[in-house]
C-alpha cells in the first residue's frame, strides 16, 4: 500500500515537467533528488525509475563540505596527508554505495551522481546570503541545514554515471533539473527519529502516536519554509513526495505498529523497527543494502555542523 501511495504522489510531481523557457537544448533531465544515499531519498529515486520515460535522466545531488575542524583532525591522524576529505564525508560514502545499488537494480537508467564539493572559503562567501534566506529561523542548526540544501540545490559539482555502468570518470557538471525531490517527512510519518522509540518505551504506542502527530504537525513551521527559501534562491522548486496530502492521511490512519514496530526488535524480524514499512519497501524494490541504512542528520552527513567550534550547540543563535 505504501508503494502505491508513493507512486501516485511521485506521478503528480515528476511527470509532464515543462522545459524551461529560452533554453537552447532540450535536456532529458528534468528531475533531481537531494541525495544522501539514505533510505528515504533512495526509495524516491528508485520509484522515479518506474515512472519516468526510459530516456529521462535522474540527477542525484550529493553535497559534502570542507569542515576545518574535521580536516585538521584528519591531518593529525594521518601525519599531514589528508587525501580527498569530501569523499570522507559520511553522506558521500553512503551516497556512492546507494548509487551503485541503484545502477544495479535499474540497468539502463541514466542516474547521474553529482558530487557537490563546497570549500570552506566558498561557504563563508555565501554565509550572509544563506542567513538572510533563513529568516525568521536563526539558529546554528538552521544554518547548518540551510547551507547543505542551498549548495545542493545549486547543482554544481562533479558528475559520474549515465547509462553505462563503467562510466565513472568525473566531469564538471551543472544539473539542468529545475525540480528537486526531498525525502522530508518520512522520519516524521514512519518513526525515524531516536525520540520515537524513546516515546514508545515511556508510554507504549499511545505515547509514540502522540510524538508522531507532534512531529508531523510542526513540519511546516520547523522545516518547509526554511528549506523552500534556501533552494528557491537558485530558481529551483523543491517538492516533497512524502508530504502528499493523501499519503499523509493514509500514514496517520495506518496503525503505528504497521509503520514502526518497536515492539519487535531488529534481531527478531531482521529489519530495523524505525521506518520498518519503508525499509520493507526498499527490500521489495531490490535494495537490501539501502534498507539497512541508519538515520543521519544532513548537517552531520555533509559535515556542515560545528565548523568553527565543537562546543557550539544547534540551538545557539547565529552570531
UniProtKB/TrEMBL annotation:
Organism, scientific name: Cladorrhinum samala
Signal sequence extent: none
Alphabetized SUPFAM superfamilies for the sequence: Adenine nucleotide alpha hydrolases-like
A Pfam family of this chain: Asn_synthase
Keyword set, alphabetical order: Amino-acid biosynthesis, Asparagine biosynthesis, Glutamine amidotransferase
Keyword Transcription (UniProt): no
GO biological process: asparagine biosynthetic process
Name this polypeptide is given: Asparagine synthase
Span of domain Asparagine synthetase: 177-205, 208-305
GO molecular function: asparagine synthase (glutamine-hydrolyzing) activity
Amino acid at each position: 500500500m505504501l508503494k502505491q501511495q508513493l507512486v501516485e504522489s511521485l506521478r503528480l510531481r515528476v511527470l509532464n515537467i515543462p522545459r524551461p523557457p529560452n533554453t537552447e537544448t532540450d535536456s532529458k533531465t528534468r528531475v533531481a533528488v537531494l541525495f544522501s544515499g539514505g533510505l528515504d531519498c533512495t526509495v524516491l529515486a528508485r520509484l522515479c525509475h518506474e515512472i519516468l520515460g526510459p530516456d529521462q535522466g535522474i540527477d542525484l545531488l550529493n553535497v559534502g563540505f570542507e569542515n576545518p575542524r574535521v580536516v585538521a583532525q584528519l591531518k593529525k591522524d594521518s601525519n599531514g596527508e589528508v587525501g580527498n576529505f569530501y569523499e570522507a564525508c559520511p553522506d558521500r560514502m553512503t551516497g556512492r554505495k546507494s548509487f551503485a545499488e541503484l545502477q544495479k537494480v535499474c540497468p539502463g537508467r541514466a542516474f547521474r551522481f553529482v558530487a557537490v564539493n563546497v570549500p570552506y572559503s566558498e561557504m563563508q562567501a555565501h554565509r550572509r546570503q544563506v542567513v538572510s534566506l533563513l529568516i525568521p529561523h536563526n539558529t546554528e542548526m538552521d544554518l547548518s541545514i540551510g547551507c547543505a540544501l542551498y549548495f545542493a540545490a545549486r547543482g554544481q559539482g562533479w558528475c559520474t554515471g549515465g547509462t553505462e555502468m563503467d562510466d565513472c570518470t568525473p566531469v564538471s557538471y551543472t544539473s539542468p533539473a529545475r525540480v528537486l525531490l526531498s525525502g522530508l517527512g518520512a522520519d516524521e510519518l514512519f518513526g525515524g527519529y531516536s525520540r520515537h522509540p524513546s516515546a514508545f518505551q515511556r508510554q507504549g504506542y499511545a505515547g509514540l502516536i502522540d510524538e508522531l502527530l507532534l512531529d508531523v504537525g510542526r513540519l511546516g513551521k520547523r522545516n518547509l519554509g526554511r528549506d523552500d527559501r534556501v533552494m528557491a534562491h537558485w530558481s529551483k522548486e523543491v517538492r516533497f513526495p512524502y508530504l502528499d496530502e493523501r499519503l499523509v492521511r493514509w500514514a496517520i490512519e495506518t496503525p503505528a505498529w504497521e509503520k514502526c514496530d518497536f515492539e519487535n526488535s531488529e534481531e527478531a524480524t531482521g529489519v530495523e523497527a524505525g521506518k520498518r514499512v519503508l525499509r520493507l519497501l526498499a527490500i521489495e524494490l531490490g535494495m537490501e543494502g539501502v534498507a539497512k541504512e541508519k538515520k543521519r542528520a544532513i548537517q552531520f552527513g555533509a559535515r556542515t555542523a560545528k565548523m568553527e567550534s565543537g562546543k557550539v550547540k544547534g540551538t545557539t543563535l547565529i552570531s
